[in-house]
Amino acid sequence: MDLKGTAEKLIHGDVKGAMQDVGKGIERTLGLSGVIIISLSAMLGSGLFVLPSMAADLMGDGMWLAYVLAATVVLPGAISKSEMASALPVSGGTYVYVERTYGPLIGTITGLGLWASFLLKAAFALIGLSAYMYAFTSFFDVEFNTINVSLSVLVLVVVINILGVKKIKSIQAPIVGSAVAFLILLSIAALFMDSTDLARPGKAAFDTDTLLLAETAALVFVAYAGVTKVAAIAGEIKNPGKNLPNGMYLSLLFATLLYAGVAYVLMAALPDQWWIQDGHTAQDPIFIFATHVGGETVGLFAAVLAIFTMASMALAGILASSRYLFAMSRDSLLPQLFEDLNPKWETPHWAIIFTGGMMAFAIVFLPVYDVAKLASGFQIMVFIVINSCVIVLRQLKRNLEWYQPTYKGPFYPVIQLWGIVAGAALIWMMGEKAFIGAGAAVLIGLITYYGYGKKHSHPRETPFESFRKQFTNPTKSEHDRRISVFHAADLGGKNHLTLSEFQHALESLDFEFKSDESRLIFHKSDLNGDGFVDIDEFITTFENEIIEEEG
């Protein structure tokens, strides 16, 4: 399969052609277990290694419940993304669906929001990495600047992304798997400690203020940012209409149990106010937890594991975020610079470098708490848009050629409305920084689109639109020829055409459409859905004006 050609078809709207290429060239090898592993690998990281102390500082011992609440807001997005991916089971991302649903303006705003959310999550991971590095080097009495460490790792991550190391994902899975296994074993060991009070977190969670719970849920929302990321490789999944939604639901369930479970045990085992270190909120909660449960050696092991986990998360984050700039540039919504590939390594180096530069800005100038809130805020906004897309697409389904999902999410539209309303409520709870971030994203999107994208992007033309243009305003002789051909194709003599008769007529009239394309034109022309197209009505509707020939 010509991957470049297939990508071109997808970017420019030839969905049928892209899907045919994928069907011929990409072997669907991922089963349910593969979907779960990839989804979890994209999710787990800073949500456990950094966020618990920040959530505890905000809500206290009951903060584990915030992870559960956040998951209920994520669930509608997972359901909606599963449905959209089953309609277009080829490689792509949320940006593709939003742009195809709402057009280039909203697509630009959403694409930049996605880019910002992933780069902020990656920056957040690097900030957390430096905290664990500090815990490790303190043991060996070595001094260093945490920001310099974060920036040094960022440079390394940028270089690796430019070099295009293809085995990174195969390395990431065992790293994340080891981290998960360690956290589960650590939590089990904590249950047998005399100081562990399992009643305390439960009581605190249900005694807390509802608004405070919602605010904390908004903060930890970023922990689930990767749950829908697996939909971007739907073209490689066996039976995507079944394995994709099931895999996403199971990975979300596992992640929720892991997040909430580890947070619950952590709060039950550690002493009150453990998250305050030297007057500041600690950024290495798992190091503190591991040291408390197993001593200094176990704590150091946790720090090393955290460093590798956060580095792999940052590596994946910059890879994902830079690809949004690349995709938008391919749609001519951003300058060509961002789609230019390095001639040697064939990676979008300028998109990667620009993303790395913005990550450096976030690391140097934004406090860690603000980075986490902004990352969560952008991600919540994206999930709101995802849910709204399904509502719009379901309503317009009859008029859309590409939206024929093999999987339909349950409880429509209640589940989507819950995702929209609850997401908006969480953003409201986050306060002014979330509104500033949202406003900035919208403003930058508007400036980008009207300053560049609108002038350079090209509207996508479907086979139906192409046919309409070709059929409009014929000459008098062409009109007469069409009448003759359509009636000749009407074997039943009833002044209407079946699908096969319609296709034969188009072929006789030298309209060069593939079988699937002519089917789409027929179905869109058959307004009452009775399986026939009335000849006179069809010609009158589509021809508009007949041009008289001179001489």
Write structural notes for this entry.
- The chain is an all-alpha fold and about 550 residues long.
- The protein has 24 helices and 4 strands.
- The strands form 2 sheets. It has a two-stranded antiparallel ribbon with strand order 1-2.
- It is elongated, with a radius of gyration of 27 Å.
Defining key terms:
551 residues, mainly alpha, Amino acid/polyamine transporter I, Recoverin, domain 1, 2 domains, two-stranded antiparallel sheet, 24 helices, elongated, disordered N terminus
Strand content: under 5%
How many β strands by DSSP? 4
Mean pLDDT across every amino acid position: 80
- State the end-to-end distance: 52 Å
Number of domains: 2
Rg over C-alpha atoms, rounded to the nearest angstrom: 27 Å
- Under CATH, the homologous superfamily of the largest domain reads Amino acid/polyamine transporter I
Kindly report the CATH topology of the largest domain. Amino acid/polyamine transporter I
Assign a percent range to the helix content: over 70%
- CATH class group of the largest domain: Mainly Alpha
How do the strands of the widest beta sheet line up side by side? 1-2
Q: What summary fits the major beta sheet?
A: 2 strands, antiparallel
What structural class do you assign from the helix and strand content?
Answer: mainly alpha
Order of helices and strands: HHHHHHHHHHHHHEEHHHHHHHHEHHEH
By CATH, the architecture of the largest domain is named Up-down Bundle
Count the DSSP helices: 24
Q: Spans of 5+ residues with little confidence (pLDDT < 50)?
A: 1-27
The coarse silhouette is elongated
